[in-house]
Amino acid sequence: MSANSASPSSRLMSGNRCSLPVAVFIVLVCLFLLQLYSLLPQKDAFKLDPQIHTSRRFRELDEVDEENIQMPPPRKRSPRAIKRKPKRPTTIIDEFLDESSQIRHLFFPDMKTAIDPNKGNGSFYYNPGRIWLDTEGNPIQAHGGGILYDERDKTYYWYGEYKDGPTYHAHKKGAARVDIIGVGCYSSKDLWTWKNEGIVLAAEENDETHDLHKSNVLERPKVLYNENTGKYVMWMHIDDTNYTKAHVGVAVSDYPNGPFHYLYGKNPHGFDSRDMTVFRDDDGSAYLIYSSVDNSELHVSPLTKDYLDVTNVVSPILIGHRREAPAMFKHQGTYYMITSGCTGWAPNEAMAHASESVMGPWETMGNPCLGGNEIFRETTFFSQSTFVLPVKGLTEYFIFMADRWNPADLRDSRYVWLPLKVAGPADQPLDYEFGFPLWPRVSIFWHKRWKLPFRWSE
Ligand code: GAL
């Protein structure tokens, strides 16, 4: 073999005047030592091979439950009632929205089935749709919410709309509403037992010109921690009774459990802004994502370094798709988002989207819901996305958080939490290209009841 054509390793060896047999011997010894090491008992296999371990520990999360909800037989109506309101075909969604439906208990099980951390039975099981009590025994009031994991005290904080008031219609054709009470906050170490931290941003009782006056709308609050300033920053949807103001609002606090001080509300970039969320990337940059142009498109805008405002950069995405209730997350360098359609409090089909950059372009990958039955999958399990929670210690799974709105009694709206995974081949071609996306499928698995694996946080 000529010197020029020799491999780098043989060149090295000839420099040291080593013979080939010696090199082979060294390699064999190394291989033997490696083999010996692999035979040693591994105390912490989970840490060494999270992928393999995860798949075994978490298999149950992928095994969906089936549902078989039947339409109830048509109700008997008097000839007078038929004359007044001619019969039209009813759908399962009509039944879901009808307070007096015979199958109402299937969507809104009563207090007897409530999840109560004080009773301990069914511990750590999530039961989508059932009433969920806090540690004081009261139903959790954190609708349209989001969760912040606070590294400083290793605690999860769940913020959401505190809707524990009477539901009414401000106008005959207006959406059902509850006066603003404020933003509720609950804390937990285990994501199942929630302590009420109180109302961390309260409504304004008297000043009618104030954004937080009780006659207005405060929805979808989300909180980020800013490492540059050491402050907790809350973003929310602020509106008037008729949803014509379409502002975002910003509040700030020194502590995760408040009190938050309301700073201002505005039309970001001069645009209308309704359903919204915020997203913090690994490098500390954060973004506001809001439904705009009468909900016909979403806008993404980087926040300023202190998270207290948007920068003047804005990117319209999913133009013409009419999506709202955005919930963004990141997995292995790719950005994902779950959104809903725009049907007010009524449920509709979720879509998953993906992008290589937060600012887009974003592609729609299709309906992420698996299990239940067709109507469950077409209604996001009778709920609407609000947040996707990365869970400390889990690599493959997220928790998909959604609201099962009860427009007849909004305070009784329920929570639908389900495991979400990014894996497997996509099942729908890209919007604008003849091909399947390079990124995998987003799946949300329906379970009547499920729990995170034992000692998931370790
Ligand atoms: C939905 C929205 C909710 C709430 C509701 C009022 O479209 O996602 O957050 O605003 O409309 O009808």
Automatic annotation (TrEMBL):
Signal peptide: none annotated. Keywords: Glycosidase, Hydrolase, Membrane, Transmembrane, Transmembrane helix. GO terms for biological process: carbohydrate metabolic process. Gene3D superfamilies: Glycosyl hydrolase domain, family 43. The keyword Ligase does not apply. SUPFAM superfamilies: Arabinanase/levansucrase/invertase (SSF75005). The chain crosses the membrane at residues 20-40. It comes from the Eukaryota. CDD domains: GH43_CtGH43-like. InterPro entries: Glyco_hydro_43 (IPR006710), Glyco_hydro_beta-prop_sf (IPR023296). GO terms for molecular function: hydrolase activity, hydrolyzing O-glycosyl compounds. Belongs to the glycosyl hydrolase 43 family. This is Uncharacterized protein isoform X2.
